[in-house]
Write a structure and sequence with these properties.
Length: about 425
């Protein structure tokens, strides 16, 4: 296995859960986690959503909407804004991994907006060694991405957005691994988003706002780190969900939001084994698939077929003949959906308190955590923080999570004293 894929798997593993408890259910034990390159693109880099269980596709627009849903900026009220975030990442494992995030937006008029962001992921200082364990060079692997987006209202309550992203991932510093010359992986991707917001509702005799959002992020070409033909998928992600906000009175309001997430990349298949228990190989030297689909597919094909390519729960009768448990393929597709639930309370649009929960199936990564957060707004200046607590209820056989004690910090600056545009929104 190449260093390129080893590094990718290690990064994915660091995002996943600790060791799972034993269970007698086979469908819990058959792990089939989806892995991609550049997983830093899917890590939430900002604090507000970090306090709400990593929820954000339909939350009210703000300076960090670029990560969640590029179409939300068309509904933002301020003329311009900037958001700066910093996250010490995986501090339960290592002391020097961090994520930095800078985002901003500008309202062109009342109908449209442009936005951009930059994120930088530093993996800390690493000592490289050769095959004999001798030290070679020290290097700080890093990844970064730049993106720009444009969003526009299609009606008084509906908007759409499109973003473009450049990605650079330098994990090896140009080291030669297994006779393969390595280098930075570079590619481009797009984000697509739709956002709906209706502020003219009354629920439980209170003024209310209903919103929903749909976003596809990181839709782009595969990425490669070597001079060979091996390429890896980007973390193409479908995110959708609703939000409901109630105005309790002139000073108090509360919002509840839900996000559902699914990777639009192929599920790993289950491979045929031979009588010795090894993976069976066809005459062309390729592993034989017992259930599922060939994972080496074009990006668009892989995104579409990701809704029906799960291999399901496979056992091997007599150690060789594959048997797929009835209904397990559809069940595995459902298990690939992770979810976040978050609540946010505001007092006088100045003080906020947030609470959330994120869940992922045990066979697909097993990330489960509770989040809390708070926010303060003073004129154009704002400060947010959030804290993550692993949440494996009823489990007694789990090691500590690498995500434990994750803190996020964000500074925001919103400017509404620029001359407002007089253009009105389009009619529905």
């Amino acid at each position: 296995m190449s260093l390129r894929r080893n590094l990718v798997i290690v990064m994915i593993g660091s995002l996943a859960s600790p060791t799972m408890a034993q269970t007698s259910r086979d469908w819990l034990l058959q792990l089939n986690t989806i892995t991609t390159a550049v997983p830093f693109l899917i890590i939430n880099p900002e604090t507000r959503g970090g306090g709400m269980g990593d929820v954000g596709v339909s939350t009210s627009p703000d300076g960090a909407s670029q990560h969640w849903n590029v179409s939300k900026h068309a509904f933002i009220e301020d003329k311009a804004g900037v958001s700066i975030s910093y996250i010490p990442w995986l501090r339960a494992l290592v002391p020097d991994i961090s994520i930095s995030y800078l985002s901003g937006y500008y309202k062109i008029n009342k109908m449209s907006a442009i936005a951009g962001s930059m994120r930088y992921f530093s993996l800390g200082n690493i000592q490289f060694t050769d095959q004999f364990g001798n030290n070679t060079v020290q290097f700080t692997p890093n990844e970064f991405a730049f993106d720009l987006s444009y969003s526009r209202k299609l009606s008084r309550r509906l908007s759409a957005g499109l973003g473009a992203r450049y990605i650079n991932s330098n994990l090896t510093g140009g080291q030669t691994v297994q006779q393969a010359t390595t280098g930075p992986g570079r590619t481009v991707a797009t984000d697509l988003g739709v956002y709906y917001q209706n502020e003219d509702l009354t629920v439980f005799n209170k003024d209310a706002t209903l919103a929903w959002g749909v976003s596809v992020s990181n839709l782009g070409a595969k990425i490669s780190y070597t001079n060979t033909s091996n390429q890896d998928y980007l973390p193409i992600n479908l995110r959708l969900g609703p939000r409901m906000t109630w105005m309790l009175d002139d000073y108090n309001k509360i919002s509840v939001a839900v996000d559902l997430n699914k990777y639009l990349v192929p599920s790993p298949p289950v491979y045929q084994i031979d009588s010795s228990g090894n993976v069976a190989i066809d005459p062309n030297g390729n592993p034989i698939i017992a259930s599922g689909m060939d994972p080496d597919r074009p990006t668009v094909n892989g995104a579409i077929s990701s809704f029906y390519d799960a291999p399901g729960i496979v056992s091997f009768e007599n150690g060789v003949t594959p048997v797929v448990e009835p209904g397990s393929r559809f069940g595995e597709e459902l298990r690939e959906i992770s979810y976040g639930i978050g609540a946010e309370y505001w007092y006088d649009d100045q003080f906020a308190f947030r609470l959330g929960y994120y869940g992922e199936h045990i066979s697909k990564g097993n990330r489960k955590f509770i989040t809390v957060g708070a926010g303060l707004r003073l004129s154009v200046f704002g400060l947010d923080f959030s804290y993550l607590v692993p949440a494996y209820f009823g489990s007694t056989n789990l090691q500590s999570s690498p995500l434990a004690r994750t803190l996020r910090f964000t500074l925001t600056f919103n400017f509404d004293d620029v001359k407002k545009d007089n253009d009105g929104p389009p009619s529905e």
